[in-house]
Amino acid sequence: MGNIIMWKKGDLFVVIAILMIFVAAISGVYLGKHLTKEQAKVAVITYQNQEIRTIALDLITKEEYLYLNNKQITIQLKPGKIRFRHANCPEKFCINTGWLANVGDFAACLPNQTAIRIEGYQKTNNKEQLDGMAY
Amino acid sequence: MKKLRLLGITLFLLASSFWFSACSLYQKKPLEVTNFAMGTIISQKIYGAQAKAASEAVLRKIKKLEAKLTINAPGGEINQLNNNAGLKIVTLSKETISLLKKATQISKLSEGAFDITVGPLVKLWKIGSNDFRIPSKQAIATALKLVSYQDLQITGQTARLAEQGQLVDLGGIAKGYAGEVATTIFQEYQIKSAFVNLGGNVVAVGSKPDGKAWRIGIQNPRGPKGSYIGIVAVKNKSVVTSGDYERFFEKNGQRYHHLLDPHTGVPAKTGLLSVTIVANSPTVADALSTAVFILGLEKGWQLVTNYPELSPEAIFITTDKKIYVTSGLKKTFIFQDESGQYHYVEKR
Predict the structure, then answer these.
(1) Of residues A26, A105, A131, nearest to B215 (C-beta)
(2) Using CB atoms within 10 A as the burial measure, which of A18, A116, B124, B225 is most buried?
């Protein structure tokens, strides 16, 4: 035999075992992701088109504040919802949008190039997901 | 020796499986980007190998269009045209000329319900800004005299506005045109599946990667943002809504919205809350949604169903909360009103 590696009966067993573990792991990850996504609402905060924070809204238990852009923007968080609380922009559209709590909700402060959107799946299962809204 | 072999096999299997899964994940996940341009939020969802390059090309182009076409861009071509109104002829780029021609064509078809020379009225009302005010009848009459698409004369590469004080405002068509340009860029980058939203103007390129149609919610005109009265499922279409809820002001119980009637000089009151146009061309969809809103259900229906090219379709929502859908959309429109306030009129 020398140094040549040959397949043995034991190897086949090892290969199958590893494959099975792998399949189980992948499906676990996939299922986990799928299930949590269905329950979770995630607020995604972007600045200059870059995602800077993602926050699982269902995990928020008490009031919290985030300060962005050298405190030019204040974002307020409460269980299950998020909003622009303060911004130094002239129009205050972002603040007037109010609380964002549902998937698809969106608010933006154009002068500060900051936006918040809610991602995830809606809890009501009978509602198929939309790709977008015409408004 | 045996241990070594076992380790080798394990590593090989793990490495190859990760590689495969990484590959398939990469292909399935779209690129999603959101930017600010043309005074609105532009989001792109793109599938394909060249998604990033395509999205960047689209954004670059839109920024260029913004500098060229919007009334807020000093030195842009539209401002050159406006600043020389009643004075001299202006030479413009091929692109701007062809867009002006398209706009004029839709003005003719809608008998002036869509009119890009509405600029003086837009300036007078300032709807959507903080210094909104209800203008005097006298001021409206004066501004109205300046509104006439027939005064925009296009010859070859040049254009001119006949009277001093006339203003072209492409607010009712520029976003649509930007969407159109995006679809051309996607073709160049071999993108077969993409979804672009330009401040509510939807452009659906191809179908979803699994071949299914894109599902687009139609905003409930009296509900919170994101609530809808129904869904349209489309492939390769643009979906654009014009409604009295987008930009408006309320005073003494009256709603003053941004869709100004070029014939009366005041916000159109034709018994509609919103109109959604589904069309092949995003430019046509954009301009037509404004025209049809201003024309109302009867005349608007006529315009849509007799439109000479590309057979657009429409969804009308009236002030008495009835929903009417043109025949070509009946199959793809799903009436799904969570508010329970709307009535879908299937036969018309």
Answers:
(1) A131
(2) A116
